Amino acid sequence: MCFDCGVRADHFYVFFEVDVRLDKLLSITGTCSRSDAKRAIRTKNVTVNGIVAKNADMQVDENNDDVSYCGKKIVYRQYSYIMLNKPEGVVSATEDGRDVTVLDLLPDGVRNDRMFPCGRLDKNTLGLILLTDNGDLAHRLLAPKSHVAKKYRFCSRFPISDEDAARFEERLVLEDGYVTLPAKIELDEDRMSGIITLVEGKYHQIKRMLEAIDNKITYLERITFGPLTLDASLARGEWRYLSEDEIAALERHGKE
After folding, report:
1. Are 85 and 230 in contact (CB under 8 A)?
2. Which residue in 36, 96, 104, 122 is the catalytic one?
3. Which one of 77-81, 86-90, 138-142 scores highest in mean pLDDT?
4. Closest Cα to residue 20, out of 83, 74, 72?
5. Helix, strand, coil proportions of the chain in percent (round to 5)?
6. Chain-centre distance for alpha carbon 181
7. Would you call 122 a catalytic residue per the annotation?
8. pLDDT in tens, 19-48
9. What is the pTM for the complete model shown?
């Protein structure tokens, strides 16, 4: 019998220091609890270096041991990369005294004290947010000179005219005098919804840009961040590790 861990992947990813208990290793992949890990070990569904594991408390070494769970190899990584579908009312912070943070949505053992959101979404903005502990890559992706594109699905209170759309795609002067970089707006037929693409990320920028054309945002969801696209199978508040291809695309984006 193999336990359903709920992760849709051919490999599991784990991030920990050298030498850790086998059951803890299995739990910090975010795929099963320690009790389920113990059951998997008892039913001979865990191997270490090709040998069926017998004890949950055995120590494993990330640099030398080859561990598999239900036939799927655990791949060791220096950094963690997680895609989260952020719900409304959750703040993009590592900790907050009043509100739930994006890190609070991760189970114990998956988040670590080095992890943070790569960029921010407003409290009531939904959608794709990248969580990582790779500070160097995050810095490169968020640097103003990088111009990493981000797409947002939006709804507005009033229809957007061709004239206002043209202003949006040129340069808008916000209430504090900041002049935005050109943005792209693709309107739906009702002209009150569509897709906005930014290459910068100032505080409440889309909200302020709509206010600059005498309009108001009523719904906002980030659907892409650089090469990443929000996984449609993730419900609000759900997360998954990035795939190998997604990580490679992020790393390439961080070098451009």
Report:
1. yes
2. 122
3. 86-90
4. 74
5. 25, 30, 50
6. 25
7. yes
8. 778 887 776 655 566 787 888 899 999 999
9. 0.77
